[in-house]
Design brief:
With about 325 residues, the protein is of the alpha/beta class. It has two domains: about 140 residues, 3-Layer(aba) Sandwich (D-Maltodextrin-Binding Protein, domain 2); about 140 residues, Bacterial extracellular solute-binding protein, family 7 (D-Maltodextrin-Binding Protein, domain 2), CATH 3.40.190.170. A six-stranded mixed beta sheet has the order 7-6-8-5-9-11, sandwiched between helices. Strands 2-1-3-10-4 form a five-stranded mixed beta sheet, sandwiched between helices. Helix 2 packs antiparallel against helix 10 and helix 6 packs across helix 11. The protein is globular and about 60 Å long. It starts with a helix and ends with a helix.
Length: about 325
């Protein structure tokens, strides 16, 4: 009998240990799906993983965030629709303008010429942040912050004529993205433009279909075009960026404390992206120099004439983004 009692006690102790172990590894109270568009090794996906880790740690493991990079849950327009429906919880995606074109205001050229201004413009609580949140919430999505990849420039196979003088024809045919702000901005700076798909950029420069390419930050330009680019002009007249978003249905289910945990984790990553983007711009331009590409950089003061020339085109966007909105945009972000 005594042996049986000891065996029974040992079995009970073992069961307790198993139960305790299982309790420590219990499923989180909240599980969130976090959609991204970049490959696993991309810097932006790294930010997503950092955010997921910070939310888990600060919630004591109550909130689990599962990261899905590389368009695993769909492209950015589909993901935005799923955020509206509440079938995806969080996302880091390009800002979609298919439902409300005003959301593409972050791609308007000419409102910021350098990182000294950008940190303040994209700061939580300031106009750009508040306006993006307002436009998203009208659709059922909570805006959480901007992810910055870098300032764009011009990659060219030929020297550009007086790049800081908007009144002079630049002497090159320049590819622009198929968006009105880019075409208007490039032409205001003196470039003749042509629209070419992103996938055909290398071939276009290689075959002479275009002499120059607009719409890329240094990292992308170097990675994609380093073998065909001879000149790089860091004109800083537009910012490559994406948006952190959360379904309002998910946001409203979170407690105020948990909302703060999520918002703080994203805000830290968003601020970090500006610092890292600046370093990336500098490091990739050095790689361009090492590659033999003639690289030109300018101060914010030197860039002001082309910035003002681009800003003069903003009235033309009123038909797309409405006049009241553009009046508000000009009042908030016009270069001084």
């Amino acid at each position: 009998m005594r042996k049986l009692t000891i065996v029974g006690m040992m079995c009970s102790l073992f069961a307790f240990v198993v139960m305790a172990s299982g309790s420590a590894e219990a499923a989180p109270e909240i599980s969130l799906r976090f959609a991204g568009q970049f490959p696993p090794e991309h810097t932006a996906t790294g930010y997503m993983n950092e955010i997921a880790g910070a939310i888990s740690e600060r919630s004591g493991g109550r909130i689990e965030v599962k990261v899905y990079p590389a368009n695993q849950l769909g492209d950015y327009t589909l993901v935005h629709q799923e955020l509206i429906k509440g079938t995806i919880d969080m996302a880091l995606i390009s800002t979609p303008g298919d439902i409300d074109p005003r959301m593409n205001f972050v791609y308007i050229n000419g409102y910021c010429a350098g990182y000294n201004q950008l940190g303040d413009i994209f700061k939580p609580g300031n106009w750009a942040f508040r306006k993006m949140d307002e436009l998203n919430q009208a659709l059922g999505v909570k805006f959480l912050g901007f992810n910055v990849e870098g300032f764009i420039g011009i990659a060219s196979t030929k020297p550009v004529t007086e790049p800081l003088n908007p009144k002079v024809d630049k002497g090159v045919l320049c590819r622009v993205p198929n968006m009105a702000p880019y075409k208007l901005g490039a032409e205001a700076m003196g470039y003749r433009t042509v629209t070419i798909p992103y996938s055909d950029l290398y071939t276009a420069l290689q075959t002479g279909v275009a002499d120059a390419v607009d719409g890329l930050p240094p990292a992308a330009a170097y990675t994609i075009l380093k073998d065909v680019t001879k000149y790089w002009y860091q004109l800083n007249y537009s910012i490559e960026n994406e948006s952190y978003m959360m379904s309002m249905q998910t946001w409203n289910k979170l407690s105020a404390d948990d909302q703060k945990i999520v918002a703080d984790a994203v805000a830290e990553a968003a601020a970090k992206s500006i610092t890292i983007a600046k370093k990336d711009d500098e490091s990739y331009m050095q790689l361009m120099r090492d590659q033999g590409i003639e690289t030109h950089t300018y101060t914010e003061e030197e860039l002001l004439p082309i910035q003002q020339a681009v800003a003069a085109t903003w009235e033309s966007l009123a038909d797309i983004m409405t006049k009241p909105f553009m009046d508000e945009f000009v009042g908030a972000l016009a270069p001084k």
